Amino acid sequence: MPDAEDVRRVALSLPDTTEKTAWSMPTFRVAGKMFATLPEDETSMAVRCPKEERDELVLAEPEKFWIAGHEAQFAWIRVRLAVLEDEQELRDILGDSWRQAAPARLLEAYPAVGRPGPG
Questions:
Q1: For residues 37-49, average pLDDT
Q2: Rounded Cα gap, residues 45 and 12, in angstroms
Q3: Computed from CA positions of residues 97, 59, 7, 32, in that sequence, does the dihedral angle turn out positive or negative?
Q4: For the chain, what is the largest distance between any 2 Cα atoms, rounded to a whole number of angstroms?
Q5: For the CA atoms of 67, 15, 111, 85, what is the dihedral angle to 10 degrees?
Q6: DSSP code of 23?
Q7: CB burial class (10 A; 0-12, 13-18, 19+) of residue 23?
């Protein structure tokens, strides 16, 4: 099961990603734009997710995904790390969130990042 250090390692392996502490927690940014955080006790992560997909994920897998009250108006979703299947699922989720925040120049330079499967 992935943990906070796995989140940090995978997030920082993505192109042009940096870690910055904000709101007393680690946040991960691509080209300065936040795409993931490790809130509270670091047993979950928050990632970007379009609202229409987010609701479907929460309904389909409520043990894995939920929406924090203070993030409800934003396109973010929480993911319980203990419920992730493996590191590949972690990579897929972080990569997808990275793609939502990355500028076009990075999306063009790294087309495989955030696509399901190896990459």
A1: 95
A2: 14
A3: positive
A4: 36
A5: -50
A6: T
A7: exposed
3-class SS at 70?
helix
Q: Which residues contact 43 (CB under 8 A, 6 or more apart)?
A: 4, 80, 81, 82
Assessment of whether the complete model's pTM goes beyond 0.90:
yes
Once rounded to an integer, what is the mean pLDDT over residues 101-111? Answer: 96
Spatial contact of 112 and 17, defined as CB atoms under 8 Å apart: no
Q: Would you call 8 helix, strand, or coil by DSSP? A: helix
How confident is the model at residue 98, as a pLDDT?
98
* Residue matched to tokens 């990632």: 47
Q: Indicate the range of 11-15, 67-71, 100-104 predicted with least confidence.
A: 67-71
DSSP state of 78: E
Strand ranges inside the chain, DSSP E: 17-22, 25-30, 33-37, 44-48, 65-66, 76-80
User: Residue 40 — very low, low, confident or very high, per pLDDT cuts 50/70/90?
Assistant: confident
Backbone φ, ψ for residue 104 (5° rounding): -55, -40
